[in-house]
Structure formats: C-alpha cells, structure tokens
Amino acid sequence: MTSRLHLGLALTLLSVCAFTGTARADDELVALREDGRLYGWFAAVGAHASILSDTRDRGLLSGRFGYGARGGYRHAGYGGFLAVEHNMWLTTENDIEVVQGAVNIGFGFEATYARGFVRTSFSVGPSILAFDTALDDAGTTGVFFDLHPVGLRWTVHKNLVIGLDPIGFALIMPVLDGIPLIDVQYRTDLYLEGVF
After folding, report:
1. Is the Cβ–Cβ distance between 106 and 83 less than 8 Å?
2. Residue 97: what pLDDT?
3. Which sequence spans correspond to the domains of the chain?
4. Which residues contact 48 (CB under 8 A, 6 or more apart)?
5. pTM above 0.90?
6. Is the pLDDT of residue 20 over 50?
C-alpha cells in the first residue's frame, strides 16, 4: 500500500507540473469575479478509478472504476450540487468480469479557492445496488459518502475546466441489513466542467 501511495503522489506532482505549464492566463473563467471567487452554474462529466485501493483482503473484488455527472451552483466560491455516478467492480472469481456495482446519488457541498484552482468537496446520498447478488436483489438501497479533500482545476477556455482529484475517499454501502455490502475506495477522479 505504501508503494502505491508513493506512486500516486508522484503521478500527482507530475500532473501538476505538466498542467501548470500549459495554463493560459488570457482564458480566465467567466464565473471568476474580481474578488477571485467563482459564481454561477456549472455542470461536469467525469470518470474515476480506485488505483490506490488495497485489494489483497477483498476476496474476489479486484478493481473499481466508473463514470458520472454533476451539476450545481456556486456563490462566492461555495457551491451546492447534485451528483449521479455508476460505480463498477472487476471480479476475478473465474474470469475477469465487470460487475455493474452500484448507482450512487450524492447531494453535495464544495468550496473553491486560489482563484478557482483548488476545490474541496463532499457528498452523501443513496447507493442503489445495480445487480443481483446471491443474497440481495438489484435495487436494494443503502448509503453513499464521497470526500475529495483537495482537487486541482485548470482553465482551458473561459467556459471550460479540466479537473483532477488525485486522492478521494468513497464509502459505498448499497446493502446495510443482513450481510452488509460495504466497499471502501481510495479514488482518483478526472473530470471536464463547463461554467456558465
């Protein structure tokens, strides 16, 4: 796990250096006011993967990844949003197979600072099982929690941002009773956001 963490931190630093060198000062966000804070509506699409999860003790689950979208409104650098994501899992029981995992709906809050370059967010909401297991039916609903302590954002156009959240934490619990189905993920997220 330590070597994976070092690899993740090294990749993050390389990404920051690469993207910072390509930032364009003339393409300032339309949502960025004179006070250096973000205002207005936004919508984003993205993908995530759990490259830092320690899977040695997780039996047949060997990887997690997914995609999603979110939209919301910011005022003076603070914002609320609604996020929907599909979280899938790889299994290695017989062959490598993609399991549909869970659909998560998050109601969230975020703060942006450093003129919109840095973002912190969290969301919570229902987690819906998207496949039948031996014990539970698809549609069983539990709880989802997602935390992104520090994410980086680069303006590529006055209405467009590329974001990288190098290390996030997600707790996905679509089944809470009987034998609970709980998945802890350490995620990396990449997204494209439009601001209006």
Report:
1. yes
2. 83
3. 2-195
4. 65, 66, 67, 68, 85, 87, 168, 187, 188, 189, 190
5. no
6. no
Q: Which two tokens stand for residue 74?
A: 């910011």
Q: Among residues 188, 196, 165, 191, which one has the least CA distance to residue 45?
A: 191
Neighbour count for residue 25 (Cβ, 10 Å):
6
The tokens describing 2, both together, are 């330590």
For the chain, how many residues are written?
Answer: 196
Number of C-beta neighbours around residue 177 at 10 A: 8
CATH of 2-195, one of 3.40.309.10, 2.40.160.20, 2.40.50.140, 1.20.120.530: 2.40.160.20
Residue 58: alpha-carbon gap to chain centroid: 21
Direct distance between the N- and C-terminal alpha carbons of the chain, in angstroms, rounded to an integer: 40
From the list 63, 43, 66, the residue with the least C-alpha distance to 52 is 63
Which 3 state secondary structure label does DSSP give 43?
Answer: strand
Q: Which residue is listed with tokens 């997690």?
A: 64
* Beta partners for residue 183, in sequence order: 172
CA distances from 14 to 25, 148, 166, 187, 190 (A): 21, 19, 11, 18, 15
Q: Is the pLDDT of residue 124 over 70?
A: yes
* pLDDT higher than 50, residue 9: no
The structure tokens listed for 153 are 């954002």
User: 61-75 and 40-49 as β-strands: parallel, antiparallel, unpaired?
Assistant: antiparallel
CA distance linking residue 30 with residue 157, whole number of Å: 9
Whether 58 shows a pLDDT value over 80: the answer reads no
